Amino acid sequence: MFLAWKEIKHAKGRYALITGVIFLIAFLVFFLSGLAYGLAQEGRMAVDNWKANAVILTKDANDNLSASQFDKEDINGVTAKEKATLLQGASVIQVKNDSDKKDNIMMFGINKDQFLAPKISKGEMFQNNKEVVIDESLAKQKGFAIGDKVLFTGYDTPMKVVGMTKGNMFNMAPTVYMSEKAFQNVRQTPVPMQKNVNAIIVRAKDGNLDNVKVKNKKLEVIPTKEFIDHLPGYKAQVMTFSFMIGFLILIAAIVVGIFIYVLTMQKKQIFGVMKVQGIPTSFIAKSVVMQTFILGVIGVVIGFVATIGVSLLLPAAVPFQLNVPLMIVIAILMIIIAVLGSIFSVRSIAKIDPLQALN
């Protein structure tokens, strides 16, 4: 440890360059992980907030919420600890007489007395068919406010924003909660289809789906995790970012390994003298590995802090969220892999012949 730190202090420029490279790669990895996590959360936050064990859809819907429709009365044939009906559809919301305050949204038609009712962060829950609760992102990004009269695509009757909920995004769009009747009014659902719902959301006894029974054979029970994985584009997006982050960590190991190897070769004569003096190869090798560890820790910590700083400056529209436990795991992985990259230098040190090095 002493030798490693002493040498870093002696050759500040060289080791600062290595630390800078580690910092840049760490910052890029952390930033991408924040974007990946933020995008993933915007696709699934509303589902996570349900705290449900499963979603019941029609078998021919291919796990697609929008493609599923069945009679609301089928809920009576479902056995579960808790159950709730859900209507879902896409629309465009706009503040009346203000075309600038407009956005694409996901509408959720719910029974406010069931567990799907969102947690209210501002205002109150809707009480009738002319009131809605919106996600806070509409206020932050588009300027929506409690008390606004809003219009929906194809529906000319204004509705009032009475409350806001935090962190309720679905399929990359903010959600708007309303009563089932209000949903049918907005969608102008034909009378014969007004008894239909898109899904039944259930909480199983003891969290065990074996305790969930469905009488209608045309319906299937889909575990929540499986339902999320089958959200349009969700899995492909997560896998894409995961591969990018993985390759960046691998590149970091290769780059650090090359830098340390070059520095080791430049110090070949010094290591030869140390061996002649009786200093064991293991001591020199430990010094090189410790140097890499110190540089890795410094670079990763600076990258971590820089990412947190930049996240505070990003506009609300950027889907960036810090997942600190995930970032800590990535940081540890980067340091470990950087240290492993220095193993090539350790092998070179072991092969150094003191006499040849001195000549």
UniProtKB/TrEMBL annotation:
<dbReference type="GO" id="GO:0005886">
    <property type="term" value="C:plasma membrane"/>
</dbReference>
<keyword id="KW-0813">Transport</keyword>
<keyword id="KW-1133">Transmembrane helix</keyword>
<comment type="subunit">
    <text>The complex is composed of two ATP-binding proteins (HrtA), two transmembrane proteins (HrtB) and a solute-binding protein.</text>
</comment>
<dbReference type="InterPro" id="IPR003838">
    <property type="entry name" value="ABC3_permease_C"/>
</dbReference>
<protein>
    <recommendedName>
        <fullName>Putative hemin transport system permease protein HrtB</fullName>
    </recommendedName>
</protein>
<dbReference type="Pfam" id="PF02687">
    <property type="entry name" value="FtsX"/>
</dbReference>
<comment type="function">
    <text>Part of the ABC transporter complex hrt involved in hemin import. Responsible for the translocation of the substrate across the membrane.</text>
</comment>
<keyword id="KW-1003">Cell membrane</keyword>
<feature type="transmembrane region" description="Helical">
    <location>
        <begin position="15"/>
        <end position="39"/>
    </location>
</feature>
<keyword id="KW-0472">Membrane</keyword>
<feature type="transmembrane region" description="Helical">
    <location>
        <begin position="241"/>
        <end position="264"/>
    </location>
</feature>
<feature type="domain" description="MacB-like periplasmic core">
    <location>
        <begin position="18"/>
        <end position="208"/>
    </location>
</feature>
<dbReference type="InterPro" id="IPR051125">
    <property type="entry name" value="ABC-4/HrtB_transporter"/>
</dbReference>
<dbReference type="InterPro" id="IPR025857">
    <property type="entry name" value="MacB_PCD"/>
</dbReference>
<dbReference type="Pfam" id="PF12704">
    <property type="entry name" value="MacB_PCD"/>
</dbReference>
<feature type="transmembrane region" description="Helical">
    <location>
        <begin position="324"/>
        <end position="346"/>
    </location>
</feature>
<feature type="domain" description="ABC3 transporter permease C-terminal">
    <location>
        <begin position="243"/>
        <end position="354"/>
    </location>
</feature>
<feature type="transmembrane region" description="Helical">
    <location>
        <begin position="293"/>
        <end position="318"/>
    </location>
</feature>
<comment type="similarity">
    <text>Belongs to the ABC-4 integral membrane protein family. HrtB subfamily.</text>
</comment>
<keyword id="KW-0812">Transmembrane</keyword>
